[in-house]
Design a protein that fits this description.
By secondary structure, the protein is mostly beta strands. It has one helix spanning 31-34; strands at 12-17, 39-41, 56-63, 66-74, 98-104, 112-118, 124-130, 136-138, 146-152, 157-165, 179-188, 197-200, 220-225.
Length: 229
């Protein structure tokens, strides 16, 4: 299929070019984020229930070799794997608070994409997903993505930066005018899945409790443009 077929969601995020690569540190007061125009969402994966108290904002910039994403996450209380080392990969991270990027750099291969997750305490997991053989999470895949978080308890806000190498997802480099498919998610709150909050930028409309995020046909668009300034 080509990109214009099989993708009913045309919701869009614009990613501006940035002149140099940088290491994520979770500080979103840097110049590139101050001039960005973040997308915002506070609705669940069905696009029905709204949770303004945990509104999520996301912005993106790029260099030829890297995708960059910034998250601003309002919260009520945090739910993390407390006391665990944040350096090793944590499979099952989605059972606690987390932000997620689902990236499909080759939209013609709709059922093959990549998942990147970071928790408020900087725990992480990256996965290669292939739905052609069932819901297969390959956690042995390593993107070498970089990430960092910061927590502002007074403002009830946690922030996250991610840097994803293009070559890790089979893209030689990014250039202005290119676009591909993406979705952003957030898992938030205490308790079991019946009471936690599951937010999706582009609603997936799934009624399957085991995979309501994994609906790649509902991914939105990320469009890469040159630096406007």
């Amino acid at each position: 299929m080509n990109e214009g077929q099989g993708y009913p969601s045309n919701i869009e995020i614009v990613s501006n070019s940035y002149p140099m690569d940088f290491d994520p540190d979770g500080n979103l007061n840097k110049r590139m984020w101050g001039s960005s125009d973040p997308i915002r969402f506070d609705h669940d994966w069905l696009g029905q229930k709204r949770f303004p108290e945990v509104e999520t904002r996301v912005a993106s910039v790029w260099t030829p070799e890297h995708f960059y994403f910034a998250f601003w996450c309002r919260y009520i209380e945090l739910n993390t794997f407390a006391g665990e080392d944040s350096r090793p990969e944590k499979y099952g991270l989605w059972d606690r608070d987390v932000v997620e990027v689902f990236l499909n750099p080759l939209p013609e291969q709709q059922r093959h994409y990549y998942e990147f997750e970071v928790a408020p305490d900087n725990k992480w997991v990256d996965l290669e997903i292939n739905l052609n053989t069932g819901l297969v999470f390959d956690h042995t895949w390593d993107s070498h993505f970089r990430h960092a978080t910061q927590l502002n308890e007074e403002a009830r806000l946690w922030t996250c930066e991610m840097r994803i190498p293009t070559q890790s997802v089979g893209v030689p480099s990014i250039h202005p005018g290119w676009q591909c498919r993406i979705n952003f998610y957030r898992c938030d709150g205490l308790g079991d899945d019946s009471v936690r909050r599951f937010l999706a930028w582009s609603p997936t409309l799934s009624d399957k409790p085991t995979d309501f995020f994994h609906v790649p046909s509902r991914f939105g668009v990320i469009r890469f443009v040159g630096n406007p300034g």
